[in-house]
Write the structure tokens for this entry.
Amino acid sequence: MASSRGLSIRIISAEEPFMKADFGETQVLIRLMVDYANMAAKERALLNRIEIATSEEERFLLEELSSRKQYVATLLSIRTVGVKGEPYSYCVPLSYDQTQPNWNDLDRVCYIFGKPVRESVTNVKATYLTSNILSTLREADFIWQIKYYGIRVAIRS
């Protein structure tokens, strides 16, 4: 059966920073999650929040993934939206210390290519959806398809 993995480009509208009162706590929680294997062994006040919000199976997966990979999670001050336009909450992209992450670990996540982003990103630059931006996104998708599948594939418009 062929893999259904691919680059999924989501356009996010952010005209101003989205930072609710829980921004700081959320930032700490995501850092605990990407280092869960180490943090679960220590007494941390916010670990109970992770235990309440996750199943035993999800915590096992967090521990497994965080023990073998050193992902970096960065909380962005933008609000994400679903494919039907329904608003969600923060965007938390992952980055990685190595050149190539294990793509099987990264299903339906936002990923930052290049060097890991370790600092908070709270400034938002307005970017408008123009034909040039769409062209760049199509080019990124094309490059991803070549790198992931190793063959040249058609780009869907």
About this structure: DSSP finds five helices and four strands in the chain. Residues 131-149 form the longest helix (19 residues). Strands lie at 71-73, 76-81, 87-91, 94-96.
